[in-house]
Every structure is written in C-alpha cells, then in structure tokens.
Design goal:
Blueprint (H helix, E strand, L loop, with lengths): L6 H51 L9 H4 L14 E2 L2 E8 L2 E8 L10 E5 L3 E5 L1
Antiparallel strand pairs: 1-2, 2-3, 3-4, 4-5
Length: 130
C-alpha cells in the first residue's frame, strides 16, 4: 500500500492557507498604517519638544534653521527631519525667531499611511488635516 497525500488533501490544505492569508494580510497592512500614523505624531512631538527646549535655553527665541538643533552639543535633535521621508511621511520644519510650524505629509495615502497629514505649531499644538 502506498502512503502519501492525495491531490484532494493537498488542495484542501492550500485552500485553508489561502483563506488564512486573505484574513491576515489586510489586518497586517492596517496595523502598519496605524503604526506609521502614530510614529508621525510622535516625531512631530519630538521636533516640537526640541524647538521648545531650544527656545527655553535662548531667551524665548526659536532657531531659524534645523542645523541649530542638530549641531548643538548636546543636540536637541539626533537627526534632521526637514525634507526627509520617514515611514511614509515627508517632514517640513519651518521656524522663525517668533515661532514654528512642522508638518508630516503622507506620501502614499492608504498604502503606508492614512489620508491624514499632521501639523504641529508653536506651543506644541498638534492638529490633523484630511
């Protein structure tokens, strides 16, 4: 007597694996998008904290460029964000002596991030736009 799997048994196993993949993959993609959105908000809060800390140490004046944050000893920010893409978001930081605005713009909505763009302004006020 030969031992092994029949074609029907193999087809059933493949169908079950396909069904599990069809259920799991969308959930994983949704989790990735949520994680990227949370990371964008956290990054903007980090940028805001760096700007506010700089202003506290410099008589209430904010830096005029990001190099003042990354080039200080010790640095207020460990890496530059202005113009860089991190986890599907492009960051823009504009700062003047009186205040700042930092934005995180979603590059591929629905793929790596939600359709939401985030903005943080002077004082650490975080808002979102759709």
């Amino acid at each position: 007597m030969r031992r092994g799997f029949t074609l029907v048994e193999i087809m059933i196993v493949v169908a079950i694996i396909a069904l599990l993949a069809a259920i799991a993959i969308p959930n994983l993609l949704r989790a990735r998008i949520t994680a990227n959105d949370s990371a964008a908000q956290a990054t903007l809060r980090t940028i805001s904290t760096a700007l506010e800390t700089y202003a506290a140490a410099n008589n209430g004046l904010y830096p005029t460029d990001e190099g003042q944050l990354t080039g200080a000893t010790p640095p207020y920010l460990n890496q530059p964000y202005n113009g860089n893409t991190v986890q599907g978001y492009v960051y823009t930081v504009s700062s003047a002596a009186a205040g700042y605005t930092a934005t995180a713009k979603c590059m591929t909505p629905g793929v790596t991030c939600s359709k939401t763009n985030y903005v943080i302004t002077t004082g650490g006020v975080l808002t979102h736009t759709d």
